[in-house]
Design brief:
Two copies of one chain form a homodimer. Chain A is an alpha/beta fold. Chain A has 13 helices and eight strands. In chain A, α5 links the parallel β5 and β6. The longest helix of chain A is centred in the C-terminal third of the chain and has 21 residues.
Chain lengths: 333, 333
C-alpha cells in the first residue's frame, strides 16, 4: 500500500452547484461520514442529488466498502446558509468565469474564515478565480474526475495568493475522502489531465471530421489497446518499458523524430460546424444503440468497480488508493 | 460475449524482425498453436524471443488460458527460408521505409503467393509500403500494441492495391489469435490509436518542457483518473455520459467552445533538445526508482492480467475478447 494514511475527514462540508460533479462530491462526502449542505438554484438539483447518491452507494457496496454511517444531506436555499458552518466548501457551478466569480465571492463572504474553499473547475486558474475574494489565501482548485465517487484523482492547484498551508490542508482533506490528490505545482489553464484529454479530443474530432473513423471506432482504438495500459501505468512508464534495456533515452531517440513527421501538422482546431456536431451526435447515438444514459452509467460503474478491485488485488495504482480507504473505513479489518 | 467466434488459426507463420514486437507476435502465435519460423539478423534475437516467450506463457497461465499444445519455433537464417511455407508473414522490422521496402520485397519474392503479408508498422501507410511489391494485393498493415500477447487491439489497414478479400482474411486471422482487429477504413499515417497517443505525448512533452509537471506526475494524472475510464469506454462514450440526459449533443455544446480557449494554442511541437531529453530521461529514472525494466514488465503484465480478468467478469470490452478466446481454447469449458 503506497498511499499515505487516509486520515479523518471534515465534519461538515458545503457543496455549491449540484450538477453531475457537485452531486457526486456530495455523495462521496456523505459516504465518508461528512454532513453536507448543498445549494443549487435549479429545481432539478434534489432529484439529481438523490440519483447520484444511489449510484455512489451501489458502487461502494460493490467495492465492499461500508456505506454507513453516512453523513446527512441538507438542501439549503442560499449559498450563505449552505456554507456558514462548513469546514470545506466545494464549488461546482458551470464553467463561466463571471458565474464562478459571483459564486466564490458569496462563499468568501459567508464561509467561516478558516474554511477551505475549493473550486471543481476543469479549466480556470485559481489566481483568476480569486480576483474578487477578500480571503484568497484559502482558495484552491480541486479538480475531480467523473464519476467522482469512484475515480481517485483530484488535481489540487494553488494560485498566487493561495497560502502554502492551504495546499497541505487540501491534500490531506482529499486523502481523507479516499482520493489521490495530485499537487499541480504550476498554475496553467486546464491543469495536467485535461490538457492531455483535450489533445486526444482534438485529434478525435479531426478523425471524425475527415471521415477517417467513427466515434465507435475511435473508442475501440482506445479501450482494446492503450486504454488498458493507462489504467495502471501512464505514458512515460509505458514508453520506458518500450525502450527496453535502453529505457527512456533509447525510446526518445527512436520515437523523437516521429514528432517531425507529416501527421503532426494536423494540430489546428477543427471547425465545430453544425454538420460536424450532427455527425458526432449521430455516431454517438449509433454507438449507444438501445442503451440509455442510465444503462451507460451502470455499465461504466460496474466496469470501474471491477477494475479498481483488480488493481487492489495486485497492489497497483488506483487499487492502492482503494486499499488505503478500506483500511481507514469502519468495520473493515 | 460480443466478440465473433475466434476461429481456427493458421498452421504456419513467419515472424520477420524479432524485436519486442516481433518476439511477442511469435509468442502469441505459438500460444495459439501456430508453428513459427522467425528471422532476425541480430544475434540477440534468440534471447529476446525466449524471454518474451516466457513472459507470454506466464501471462496466459495467469489468465488461466491453456499454454499447451504450443506451436514450434524455428529460427531461420534468411527471410526466404522463414517465409517459404508460411500462411501468415508478420513483418516487424524497425520503422525505416527503406528497410521496410527491402524486407517486404524479399518476403514478396519468397512467400507462397496465397500467403497473407502483414506489416506491424505503427506509422507507414500500406500503399507506401507496397510500392516495390509484385503481389501487393495480399499486403495489409496489422498494427499491434505492446504487450502483443496481452493487448487485444490490432489495427488492420489496407492500401490502394490491397484486395478486399485480404482485409477479410486479416480480420479473421487476428481473431483466430484471440485479438480484436479494428478495420481502419481510410489510409492515414499513424492510423487511429497512434494519432491519439502522439497527441498525448506531444502535450506531455510540453508539460515537461515548460516545467509544469514531471514524468511521474503526468503518469499519475493518467492512471488515477481518465486512464481507468479508458480501459472500458473510450472518449466519446465517456463524454456521452458526461452530457447527461442531453447526451453527446449537449456535451458538444458545453465543451465545444473550450477548443477555442487559449491553451489550445500550445500545439506546435516542442524542440527535442538534449536538455529536454536529459530531463525526461532523468525524471523517468526517478520514477522507476530501483525497479528494473524486467520488474516493470512483470508489474505491467500482472496488472494487465488482473484488469483483463476483471473486464471478463463484467462482460465488457477487452474482457469479451478474452472470453471468446477462452471459449475457443482447448481444455476449457
Amino acid at each position: 500500500m503506497a498511499e499515505p494514511p487516509v486520515g479523518v475527514p471534515p465534519r461538515r462540508a458545503a457543496v455549491i452547484g449540484c450538477g453531475v460533479i457537485g452531486a457526486a462530491w456530495a455523495a462521496r462526502l456523505r459516504l465518508r461520514g461528512v454532513d453536507v449542505c448543498a445549494y443549487d438554484p435549479s429545481p432539478a438539483a434534489a432529484d439529481l442529488l438523490a440519483a447520484v447518491d444511489a449510484d455512489a452507494i451501489a458502487a461502494w457496496t460493490a467495492l465492499e466498502l461500508p456505506t454507513e454511517p453516512r453523513g446527512s444531506l441538507t438542501i439549503c436555499s442560499s449559498i450563505g446558509a449552505a456554507v456558514e458552518a462548513a469546514e470545506l466548501v466545494q464549488e461546482s457551478v458551470p464553467e463561466r468565469l463571471d458565474l464562478k466569480h459571483t459564486t466564490l465571492s458569496e462563499i468568501d463572504r459567508f464561509a467561516p474564515v478558516d474554511a477551505l474553499i475549493a473550486s471543481s473547475t476543469s479549466g480556470f486558474k485559481p489566481s483568476d478565480l480569486a480576483t474578487p475574494l477578500d480571503h484568497p489565501e484559502r482558495l484552491v482548485v480541486a479538480h475531480p474526475f467523473n464519476p467522482v465517487y469512484l475515480l481517485p484523482l483530484v488535481e489540487v492547484v494553488g494560485g498566487e495568493r493561495t497560502a502554502l498551508g492551504t495546499i497541505d490542508r487540501a491534500m490531506s482533506t482529499y486523502r481523507s475522502l479516499g482520493m489521490h490528490p495530485l499537487h499541480v505545482r504550476v498554475e496553467i489553464d486546464a491543469f495536467i489531465a485535461d490538457r492531455l484529454l483535450e489533445a486526444v479530443w482534438r485529434e478525435a474530432l479531426w478523425l471524425v471530421n475527415d471521415g477517417i473513423a467513427t466515434a465507435a471506432e475511435i473508442d475501440d482504438a482506445i479501450r482494446y489497446g492503450f486504454g488498458l495500459r493507462w489504467a495502471q501505468m501512464g505514458t512515460f512508464e509505458t514508453y520506458r518499458i518500450a525502450g527496453g534495456a535502453g529505457g527512456m533515452r533509447h525510446f526518445m531517440a527512436q520515437f523523437g523524430p516521429a514528432l517531425k513527421w507529416p501527421w503532426t501538422k494536423l494540430m489546428d482546431t477543427p471547425e465545430l460546424t453544425d454538420e460536424l456536431i450532427d455527425r458526432i451526435a449521430g455516431q454517438s447515438d449509433d454507438q449507444a444503440g438501445d442503451r440509455t444514459i442510465r444503462d451507460l452509467i451502470e455499465e461504466r460503474d460496474r466496469n470501474l468497480v471491477a477494475i479498481l478491485r483488480s488493481l487492489e488485488s495486485v497492489d497497483a495504482g488506483a487499487g492502492q488508493t482503494l486499499a488505503a480507504l478500506r483500511a481507514a473505513s469502519p468495520g473493515t479489518t
